[in-house]
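Bench log. Compound arrived from synthesis this morning; before running ITC I wanted a structural hypothesis for how uracil sits in the protein. Inputs:
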Amino acid sequence: MQKLTESQRLAYLSAMDIDVFVPRDVAAVAPLDATTPLGGSLKLSVPAPEQRHDDEAVSSAPIAAETATPSVADAARRWALLQHDVQRCTQCRLHETRTRPVFGSGSRFARLLIIGEAPGAEEDKQGEPFVGPAGQMLTSMLSAIGLARDAVFIANVLKCRPPQNRDPRGDEMASCRGYLTAQIAEIQPEVILAVGRFSAQQLLDLDQPLGKLRGKAHTLPGDDIPVVVTYHPAYLLRTPAAKAKTWQDLKRVHALLGAQS
Ligand code: URA
């Protein structure tokens, strides 16, 4: 994983409006730990596939097929198939207007899964999630808790851009839901960060406003994966005052990852 320089880290914290007080004499002797700005001992490395599948490595001994754990190769194949299906999807009308679908980016072995709303203009062009201005804000949010983009997985509720960036429609979210469910099942993240109302409502199967959903402990329905709800980075660009609450949410993500490492 790429390590942040101190000046990069400070720039990201500043983008999040997070004040950093560094006593002059301490700064000279002990630079801040660039990977753990909250002072925690969060493990940021992405587990190698073999670490995540210790049990599967052992399973090469002959065992009954019905009790065998799925192999690493099977998981990789399922993931490739899922990507293939998304790239060719025509299940809703958005395929008619998209440039290309946006499957998601990052590590399939990530401990943190971030779920946004839908690709915007830049994402539709590049086929990558969160690469426009909101993406830069998301990168700052992650960096504020010591995470690089390639250490997490970033996906959206909708894989295709709604024309003129209009809100996702119910039927479009329903058509796309299977892909998101499959991504969650394959990644098996330890924590999900839902950014924005559509993501939070879709994941939690609730229709409350974002202000009512954030700041509470949720788990994915039918599962025990903690879901932290926060503001969408695009909203933070329009409403910088909401960064303080977002910082509280990010600290919760950091604590949950720390608690489970
Ligand atoms: N907004 C989102 O919700 N997702 C993106 O990928 C980009 C902007």
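What the model suggests: The beta strands are 105-106, 112-116, 153-156, 191-195, 218-219, 226-230. The mean pLDDT is 83.
ITC booked for Thursday regardless.
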